[in-house]
Amino acid sequence: MKRLEGKVALVTGAGRGAGAALALKLAAEGAAVVVNDLDAAPAEETVAAIAAGGGRALAFAGDVTRPGFAEDFIATGVNGFGGADILVNNAGYIWNAGVGATTDEQWDAMQDVHLKAAFRIARAWNPWLVERARAEAADQQEGARRQARKMVNISSVSGTHGAWKQIGYSAAKAGLIGLTKSLAREWGPLGVTVNAVAFGLIETRLTQVITGETSIEVGGRRHRVGLTREIRDNLYAQTPLRRGGTPEDAAGAVLLFCLPESDYITGQIIEADGGVGM
Ligand SMILES: NC(=O)c1ccc[n+]([C@@H]2O[C@H](COP(=O)([O-])OP(=O)(O)OC[C@H]3O[C@@H](n4cnc5c(N)ncnc54)[C@H](O)[C@@H]3O)[C@@H](O)[C@H]2O)c1
């Protein structure tokens, strides 16, 4: 028996990088997965890869910052697969600057994608969680075991330790820690665990070695990303494990908080960073 058989997982930003690797791992454990991404094509690619492995998934393309997104996302899990047991807030990107150069627009964009979107998803999920907890409490009188449900929020070592010239991103990722701990308290009585994983250097398009002008497009706007080879090599040298994490390493840490093995762990932040922040 796979460990997530019968569960429905919803993952934002699962068209690429750590989110895509996580969607594949959740599906391999038997979960049906709703794969969100801003960009439809990579979301469809993740769904196709899951289907090729014999799993169940559907794509839900859209911007997590759109008002109404959260309600539609939860409804896609509930209507498409009959539930919403595991929710991972992973979508995001970097728009870096120091304090002097950060515009209001830039600050708001970072809070919106990393923090406000997670809050709205939690608010939209809440009625379903309350309703399920009530129904299962009634069943429990007849001896049924209450279902554990899980939220995992993707933070960053920029949130847990701060980062040079990432003020908006860092503040939003730190805000996710408060959101995680508050929801863990509020939803504990419903049997929902809420934890966060703070990634260190994970090798995705955000941290690629810069060759010429390296940028990504998010919602029609281009953002510079990437690290010079020198900075990347310095980061490796400062990391006890002497390497960056793969998307699979990052996804593995998140999977821990999605499995029944973590049913008694809530309100925790783990750093998946090769030991750099210990
Ligand atoms: N790569 C790292 O070193 C690192 C370190 C710390 C934290 N993180 C965090 O990990 C998460 C995943 O990042 P990644 O490194 O896999 O990057 P990635 O760019 O490979 O994947 C992120 C995905 O999120 C999607 N996305 C971005 N904005 C979105 C929006 N508004 N709505 C829906 N989808 C959106 C992108 O299209 C992309 O497919 C992010 O929250 C990021 O901040 C990454």
Which characteristics define this entry?
binds nicotinamide-adenine-dinucleotide, Sc_DH/Rdtase_CS, 7-stranded parallel beta sheet, oxidoreductase, 3-oxoacyl-[acyl-carrier protein] reductase, SDR_fam, 278 residues, two-stranded antiparallel sheet, quinone binding, globular
Structure write-up:
The two termini are 36 Å apart. The chain has eight helices and nine strands. The strands form two sheets. Strands 3-2-1-4-5-6-9 form a seven-stranded parallel β-sheet, with helices on both faces. Strands 7-8 form a two-stranded antiparallel sheet. It is α/β, with parallel strands linked by helices. It has one domain: NAD(P)-binding Rossmann-like Domain (Rossmann fold, 3-Layer(aba) Sandwich).
Compile the SSE list and pairings:
Blueprint: E1 8-11, H1 17-28, E2 32-37, H2 40-52, E3 57-61, H3 69-81, E4 86-89, H4 104-140, E5 149-156, H5 157-161, H6 167-187, E6 192-199, E7 215-218, E8 221-224, H7 229-238, H8 247-256, E9 269-272
Helix pairs in contact: 1-2, 1-8, 3-4, 4-6
Bound molecules: nicotinamide-adenine-dinucleotide.
Keywords: Oxidoreductase
GO biological process, one term: fatty acid biosynthetic process
Family: Belongs to the short-chain dehydrogenases/reductases (SDR) family.
